[in-house]
């Protein structure tokens, strides 16, 4: 390398530095995704220890997106990102997530119970004029005080996490444009999926540590991780600053945000098709994720797991997690290997480990360890599918196949799984197969949807386009956890009455819901997504949007 080459080399020209930046951003998202679902695998414990019924649980979970949707925070986040740049917005989003998560944690601690704050929240915030009339309030009369306060924290966290999502996407574009951008995006999403698996496995472990149930321990674990996420963003800040010093660019000055940009995006038909498909598909996945463990508890009979010692309870769980890390590592490695034989060897190894993983989950017999396989498959194949879209295309077809699989899975959960309630082996096998297929669907759609956005809008307004899609998507992510909770209570009237009259205990009630109606509702979302996918494919062919074309042309 000559002296001139050395002078012109920036941080982003070094593969090591580029991937270090990706690691920082992706690890921050990994921590955020852990917090996003930290309460999901312990819905039953929230009901038995904090008195959150399904409506309270669903309302609290849905509150995550309330400010983004109704106060248009996501639109402001897009504007902040375009005006202030990636590194400022990254730190801001990290700090917002941490503040919200800390409030959420305090709400579920024992210290909150019996405090003045609890009394205040019991007597207040029952009604938000305007929102209640429309049935879209994040609070309702009779909602437990802890759920109300937790909802406030989760709303603030939701602003931070969505802001982080669009910031990280733009950060990846800044550092990887013209290089391995799709692989970087796929790897970031894969690590986020690993975050979901981590919380599905470890949240119940922390809540039940030492045989004493304390749900706030799980949330505290998430808060510590968000602190680490903020540190990651701070390190990123300095690397990004250095890059701008080296290049003499400042993207927020070179490419300032204009309100008219929003109009340009909103007038694109292709953009609307993708945004609507996104809201329908993700509404059938993320809200489901919040109830999936409980749905399995209600549909399968699990053996009692010993809780006398940490190792008796958690050895298999920890081994399962180690296998998951190997599968993730094998997937990442396979993307960097040049030789196809090596790639298939690693994939075979991942397949074998996946089988062992499932077997361990079956031996361990708990809903969390069975559902943990869902994000695992997405971890393994999202980067591979991203690579496929880069080199072979077929994004619109992949969107359709992913939606079709989604419908199939929700209908299986609704009508086939309950038939195996008394068949321990058959039930777990059906559950595993369906979850694995759902995991494949959750790889096909994200891997093809997000890289399609740059084909629909100008590169200059990509940040605002992602913010707008996230905003539309957040409407569904707000509405559907809440709707699932309401539909559950409305279609399980006998159970709700028995619980109210003390005929059954909260522990029994928590694992006795009939999930058929909410699952059919989610399957309908999948059907609508499939129809939109078909329309998108037709429009793509007619207008030549290039969605079926590879990103990298030889
Ligand atoms: C929940 C969030 N709004 C979302 O849509 N997340 C996507 C990833 C979007 C790309 C982030 N760089 C997901 O599939 O998790």
TrEMBL record:
InterPro entries, A to Z: MFS, MFS_trans_sf, MFSD1
Spans through the membrane: 20-42, 62-81, 88-107, 149-169, 190-207, 219-238, 259-282, 318-337, 344-363, 369-389, 396-417, 429-449, 461-484, 515-536
Protein localization: Lysosome membrane
Keyword set, alphabetical order: Lysosome, Membrane, Transmembrane, Transmembrane helix, Transport
Main location class: membrane
Family that this chain belongs to: Belongs to the major facilitator superfamily.
Protein name: Lysosomal dipeptide transporter MFSD1
Organism: Bacteroides stercoris
């Amino acid at each position: 390398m000559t002296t001139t080459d050395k002078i012109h080399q920036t941080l982003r020209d070094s593969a090591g530095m580029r991937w270090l930046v990706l690691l920082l951003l992706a690890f921050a998202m990994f921590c955020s995704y852990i917090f996003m679902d930290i309460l999901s695998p312990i819905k039953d414990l929230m009901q038995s220890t904090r008195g959150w019924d399904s409506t309270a649980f669903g309302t609290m979970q849905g509150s995550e997106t309330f400010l983004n949707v109704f106060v248009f925070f996501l639109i402001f986040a897009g504007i902040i990102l375009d005006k202030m740049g990636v590194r400022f917005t990254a730190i801001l989003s990290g700090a917002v997530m941490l503040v919200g998560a800390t409030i959420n944690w305090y709400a579920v601690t024992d210290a909150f119970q019996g405090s003045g704050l609890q009394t205040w929240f019991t007597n207040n915030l029952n009604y938000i004029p305007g929102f209640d009339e429309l049935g879209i309030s994040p609070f309702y009369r009779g909602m437990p005080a802890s759920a109300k306060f937790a909802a406030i924290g989760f709303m603030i966290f939701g602003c931070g996490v969505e802001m982080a999502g669009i910031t990280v996407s733009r950060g990846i574009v800044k550092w990887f444009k013209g290089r391995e951008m799709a692989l970087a995006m796929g790897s970031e999403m894969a690590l986020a999926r690993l975050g979901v698996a981590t919380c599905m496995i470890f949240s119940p472990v922390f809540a039940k540590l030492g045989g004493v149930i304390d749900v706030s321990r799980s949330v505290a674990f998430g808060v510590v991780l968000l602190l680490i996420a903020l540190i990651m963003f701070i390190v990123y800040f300095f690397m990004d600053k250095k890059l701008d010093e080296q290049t003499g660019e400042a993207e927020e000055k070179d490419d300032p945000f204009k309100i008219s940009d929003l109009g340009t995006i909103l007038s694109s038909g292709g953009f609307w098709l993708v945004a609507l498909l996104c809201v329908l598909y993700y509404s059938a996945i993320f809200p489901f994720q919040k109830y999936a463990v409980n749905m399995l508890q209600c549909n399968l009979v699990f053996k009692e797991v010993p809780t006398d010692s940490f190792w008796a309870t958690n050895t298999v769980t920890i081994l399962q997690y180690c296998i998951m890390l190997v599968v993730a590592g094998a997937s990442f490695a396979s993307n960097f290997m040049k030789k196809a034989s090596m790639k298939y060897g690693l994939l075979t190894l991942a397949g074998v480990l996946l089988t062992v993983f499932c077997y361990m989950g079956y031996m361990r017999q708990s809903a969390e360890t069975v559902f943990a396989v869902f994000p695992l498959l997405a971890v393994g194949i999202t980067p591979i599918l991203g690579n496929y879209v880069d080199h072979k295309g077929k994004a619109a077809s992949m969107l359709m196949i992913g939606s079709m699989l989604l419908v199939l899975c929700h209908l299986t959960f609704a009508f086939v799984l309950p038939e195996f309630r008394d068949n321990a082996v058959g039930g777990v096998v059906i559950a595993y197969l369906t979850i694995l297929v759902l995991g494949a669907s959750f790889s096909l759609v994200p891997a093809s949807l997000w890289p399609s956005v740059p084909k629909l809008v100008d590169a200059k307004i990509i940040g605002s386009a992602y913010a707008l899609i996230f905003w539309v998507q957040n409407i569904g992510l707000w509405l559907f956890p809440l709707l699932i909770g309401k539909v559950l209570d409305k279609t399980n009237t006998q159970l709700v009455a028995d619980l109210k009259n003390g005929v059954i205990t909260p522990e029994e009630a928590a694992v006795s819901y009939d999930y058929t109606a909410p699952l059919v509702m989610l399957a309908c979302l999948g059907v609508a997504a499939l129809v939109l996918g078909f329309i998108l494919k037709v429009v793509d062919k007619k207008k030549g949007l290039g969605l079926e074309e590879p990103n990298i042309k030889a």
